[in-house]
TrEMBL record:
Its cofactor is pyridoxal 5'-phosphate. GO terms for molecular function: kynurenine-oxoglutarate transaminase activity; pyridoxal phosphate binding. The keyword Plastid does not apply. Keywords: Aminotransferase, Pyridoxal phosphate, Transferase. Residues 29-378 form the Aminotransferase class I/classII large domain. SUPFAM superfamilies: PLP-dependent transferases. This is Aminotransferase class I/II-fold pyridoxal phosphate-dependent enzyme.
């Protein structure tokens, strides 16, 4: 065909693919794309193998295996004092990104406005655009990436259909406080605005801080979709397994689209996860596990020319490089990969108007050896 009228004319290959490809080409240490380079628990892998051997290899139920939905509801209700019904308010998805896409496709119509906070995970905007929605961006500022709720109030109109939040936040590593959530709850009170709360790093939070899930706040929970990721929690990003929580009326609409999107997610993995989640330590131990990695990485680069504010959550750390060069972050990230063999993610690609704050995002979900080798490189720059 000579003439293709693209629905996403401005969208190209994601920065994650670009930087990982560059890392592979130059044999660089890859701290760009957010995936661990260590193995998941052998016990979990054995559970998947056992499920396959037992014959759980055909379609799972469309909303997910009930035993898995039940333990997710139990986990969530225990952690956040909520009351999710596993039959009608929990759905297993093929990763959190599929859940996010399904939520947006189920609710966003042409000219609906969606408020997002930038820097933002790069799947939000294209999904909104595909369904004719209008993006209303609010730029967060370094170094703390806090939200100005007065500004949010000015951006809410009669056309506002959805607000998307992400905490712990990718790429900044910041988190929303209880006070933030209470202010958001008050802002949305009395409206029909849907909240999409991207909580894929809910169990990766540091320094004794607590994750403030939308599930904890009744005025938010009643209007919220919460998305979560087993890939992020259990070091299995390649499995593409996640789940979604929402009140029954909202979830019914979600499932209408979900059944025609993927229908169901991996059956043997659901059996394995249902068994694995019975041990709460599998996710409650994650803050200490990843804080040790964060602290190691920061201790190794503290005498470098990079500066930083320690991440409060996620497994990403921003490093500011303005003391080194005034290059744009995309150009500097490319040069680091090609000349110094270390790959990172430039943050400007997630910002409003590609605002360049001279920061790069590094993933510290790596082995101790990888982090030491990476820090050695960074300290020489």
């Amino acid at each position: 065909m000579k003439n293709i009228n693209s629905k996403l004319p401005e969208v190209s290959t994601t920065i994650f693919t670009v930087m990982s490809t560059l890392a592979n080409t130059y044999g660089a240490i890859n701290l760009s794309q957010g995936f661990p380079n260590f193995e998941t628990d052998k016990g979990l892998i054995d559970l998947v193998t056992l499920a396959m051997k037992k014959g759980h290899n055909q379609y799972a139920p469309m909303p997910g295996l009930l035993s898995l939905r039940e333990i997710i509801a139990q986990k969530t209700n225990t952690l956040y004092q909520s009351n999710y019904n596993p039959n009608t308010e929990v759905t297993i998805t093929s990763g959190a990104t599929q859940a996010i896409f399904t939520i947006i496709s189920a609710f966003i119509r042409p000219n609906d406005e969606v408020i997002i906070f930038k820097p933002a995970y790069d799947s939000y905007e294209p999904s909104i655009e595909l369904f004719g929605g209008t993006i209303v961006p609010i730029q967060l500022s370094m170094p703390d990436f806090t939200i100005d709720w007065q500004e949010v109030a000015t951006k809410i109109t009669s056309k506002t259909k959805m607000v998307i939040i992400n905490s712990p936040h990718n790429p900044s590593g910041s988190i929303l406080s209880k006070e933030d959530m209470l202010q958001l709850e008050k802002l949305l009170e009395g409206t029909d605005i849907i909240l999409l709360s991207d909580e894929v790093y809910e169990h990766i939070i540091f320094d004794g801080l607590a994750h403030q899930s939308a599930a904890k706040f009744p005025g938010l929970a009643e209007r919220s979709f919460i998305t979560a990721s087993f890939g992020k929690t259990f070091h299995t990003t390649g499995w593409k397994m996640g789940y979604c929580l929402a009140p029954r009326e909202l979830m019914a609409e979600f499932r209408k689209v979900h059944q025609f999107n993927v229908f169901c997610s991996s059956h043997p993995m659901q059996y394995a996860l249902a068994e694995y989640l019975k041990n709460a330590d599998t996710y409650l131990s994650l803050p200490n596990f990843y804080q040790e990695k964060r602290d190691l990485f920061l201790s190794l680069v503290k005498d470098s020319r990079f500066s930083f504010t320690p991440a409060s959550g996620t497994y990403f750390q921003l490093l500011k490089y303005s003391a080194i060069t005034d290059e744009g972050d995309v150009a500097f990230a490319e040069r680091l990969t090609k000349e110094h063999n270390i790959a990172s993610i430039p943050v400007s690609v997630f910002n409003l108007n590609q605002q360049d704050d001279k920061v790069l995002r590094f993933c510290f979900a790596k082995t101790e050896d990888t982090l030491k080798r990476a820090a050695e490189v960074l300290c020489k720059i």
